Automatic annotation (TrEMBL):
Keywords: Bacterial flagellum biogenesis, Chaperone, Cytoplasm. InterPro entries: FliT (IPR008622). It comes from Paraburkholderia metrosideri. Its main location: cytoplasm. This is Flagellar protein FliT. It is found in: Cytoplasm, Cytosol.
Length: 107
């Protein structure tokens, strides 16, 4: 009976990691990057605790975790690209306003 105990603990661990992954995904979808980072820090040591051998049920959950991570990563990359574009646009507008102000002060 003691043989089944580690598998049960691993299943619970995988379920806990899945729950954190879902929370990370939700935080990323609402652009709460600080919360997503905090949850990722909490999740990381749990991921490292996964045993090499898993039950079929746990493997299915791990694949779901991987899929969610993939979606979250793509969303984060898109958000980063949008932020870079917005930043560059804002800097261009600021530079244009500074040039206008410089010319206006010369008159």
């Amino acid at each position: 009976m003691t043989e089944a105990r580690p598998e049960i603990d691993q299943n619970r661990l995988v379920e806990q990691v899945l729950a954190l992954t879902e929370e990370i995904d939700h935080a990323a979808r609402i652009a709460d990057w600080q919360r997503a980072a905090l949850l990722s820090e909490q999740r990381s040591p749990l991921l490292m605790s996964f045993a090499p051998q898993q039950s079929p049920e746990a493997l299915a959950l791990i694949r779901r975790i991987q899929a969610l991570d993939d979606v979250t990563l793509r969303g984060a990359q898109t958000a980063q690209s949008e932020l870079v574009t917005d930043y560059r646009s804002a800097m261009d507008r600021t530079n244009a306003a500074n040039r206008y102000n410089s010319v206006a002060l010369m008159r």
